[in-house]
Every structure is written in structure tokens, then in C-alpha cells.
Amino acid sequence: MSKNLLEQLREVTVVVADTGDIQAIEKFKPQDATTNPSLITAAAQMPEYQHIVDQTLIKAKKDAGNKASHQEVVSLAFDRLAVSFGLKILQIIPGRVSTEVDARLSYDTNGTVAKARYLISEYQAAGISADRVLIKIAATWEGIKAAEILEKEGIHCNLTLLFGIHQAIACAEAGITLISPFVGRILDWYKKDTGRSSYPPAEDPGVLSVTKIYNYYKKFGYQTEVMGASFRNMGEITELAGCDLLTISPALLSELQNTVAELPRKLDPVTTSGLSIDKISVDQATFERMHAADRMASDKLREGIDGFTKALISLEELLTARLSRLEAEMVGVG
Questions:
Q1: Active site residues
Q2: Which residues, by range, are in coiled-coil regions (predicted)?
Q3: 160-to-7, 178, 245, 304, 313 alpha-carbon distances in Å
Q4: Which of 24, 140, 153, 179 suits 166 as a labelling partner, its CA being 20 to 30 A distant?
């Protein structure tokens, strides 16, 4: 009997689950898992994960001390909640979990470095090796420079909200472990900009962008891994079969699992040696010039940071409300 698409994809690509939903991770058993502020906020609102939120808040309140304000307790719990989900996920998967630095630090190199060190220290305090965690950072120039510092300390990074070749090259030159180019968000921008309702998978602008980055990395021998992310449909995924990694939502993982068809490998390092590609060196001036010239990358990076920031604010509000309820319950019990 023929294999389904998910089985075949796993033969040429590391499959990663793009979710904070622990039950979905248990179902699909991916190698790695990625989370982001929107996914953590969504998971934190699910009844089945209320105990994780509550345990994190109770411990934060205890550690902050009796005189700590709500804001201080929530701030502590906020940082720890992504780690709490990450620890649960690491009990299921054999590989790495990606945990994101606060998006509000995206243009703050020093702040990003400090927050990343703190997140890693929380994982290590729970007995998790730094090798099993990727710190997610937005691929601004400041974020890339922060990741360069962290990589030299043995803290591995996943540069996210990546839309342009200039971002990808800067990451590779900085020795970043992994990048996450956003396929679906690139498609969204082009559909809106051109007025087109759809693109065939082979012509999808997001697919073409990841293919270009993958070929560039393999042609010039960069070790940075390429992980396609943010998929809108199954065709985008099958067109990138062979990419180093692909991080896929539970809905699309299910669709792949339920589809039996041939899956040809589309990306292969063997084929890149004969490609004619110009090598580009990206310093800050070049990065800023290329970023300003790329309307799509400029729009989507800014929009992505704004979106994650809104999710973080929602999460803080959720934690504040839950802390008040927990305190009221404790008084009632007392």
C-alpha cells in the first residue's frame, strides 16, 4: 500500500509541529515543536491547559513574595509560561522546542540577549539542556546581532518573521542555528498586493522565497538550517519537500496524513552546485537598504512584530484576570 504524504515527507524533511497544543503534539509525534506568542496565548485559554497556567501563576506568586504587586507576579509568570509549555512539549518530542523572546524587544539587542539567557536558565533549572531549546527572535538587524552573541555562548537560535533574502543571508553570516521563513504570510502579501485570489503551488511567492534561500545556503555551504513556516495550504508544503525542516500546523499535518499520493523531492542540496547564484555580503547598511527596497519584507516584519505584541498583551491580561480569580478562590478556601 502507498504511503501517505506525511510519511513520505518525513523521509526527506524533519517535520516540526507548529502549535502550543500538547494533545496535537502527542498525536503527530513530530521531531521538534515551535511555539509563538499567538499559539501560547491560544493554548493558555484552552480548558485542558488551565492547570499549566494556574501552576505557573501560583509558583510566580510564591517566588515574587507576599508584598509583590499583581503586575510583578504576572510579569514573572508571563516569562515562565512559555517555558512551562516548552517543558511539557519536551516530555513528548525527542528533539527541540522553540521558545520566543518577547516581541517588544525585537529592536533591542541587549534586552533580547538578557531575556534569552533568562529563558535558557529557566529550562536548565528544570533539568533541560540548552541543546534542546531554540530561542526564537524576530529577524530584525538588532535581533540577528543578539542571536550572534547568543550562538557564541552556546544558546541556539531560531530567527523568525523572516521574509527576505537579506534577512536570511545576515542570519547565515552570523552563524545562526536555524531560520523560519514565513511562506504563507508572503503569499498573503502578494495576493493582497496583486489582487490575485490564488497562485499555483509551484509559483507561490512564499515557496519561491524559501527555495531561493535554501539554494543560496546549500550553494555556499552555510550550516544554518532552513525551516519553512506559516503554511496556508498543503501544496506549499509538498513544493518544499526536501527542505531541512518544515513546521506545520496540526490541521495541515492531519491533511498530509490523510492523503495518499506520490511526493517527489523538490529541494535537494545535490542540485544546487550547478546553480548560478551571486554571493552577497550583508552588513548593516546593506541590510537596511535591501529591507527598505523590499516592500513585502518591510510590511510583514513590522506587521508580525505588532501581531505578536498584541498576543502578548492579551496573554498578560489573561494572566492578570486568572491571578485575581485564583486569589479569590484561595481566600474562599481560607
A1: 136
A2: none
A3: 26, 9, 14, 9, 19
A4: 153
Domain that holds residue 170: 5-332
Q: Is the Cβ–Cβ distance between 213 and 229 less than 8 Å?
A: no
* Residues sharing a CB contact under 8 Å with residue 269, sequence separation 6 or more, in sequence order: 218
pLDDT-wise least confident of 211-225, 240-254, 296-310, 311-325: 311-325
Copy the grid coordinates of residue 312: 502578548
Q: Which of 198, 111, 172, 159 has the alpha carbon at shortest distance from 304? A: 159
Per-residue pLDDT tens over the stretch 41-81: 898 899 999 999 999 999 999 998 888 898 999 989 988 99
- Percentage of the chain with pLDDT > 70? 99
Q: What is the CATH number of the domain that holds 131?
A: 3.20.20.70
Strand partners, 33: 17, 97
267, 207 contact by CB (below 8 A): no
- CA separation for the pair 297, 209 (Å, rounded): 11
Rounded CA gap, 70 and 319, in Å? 10
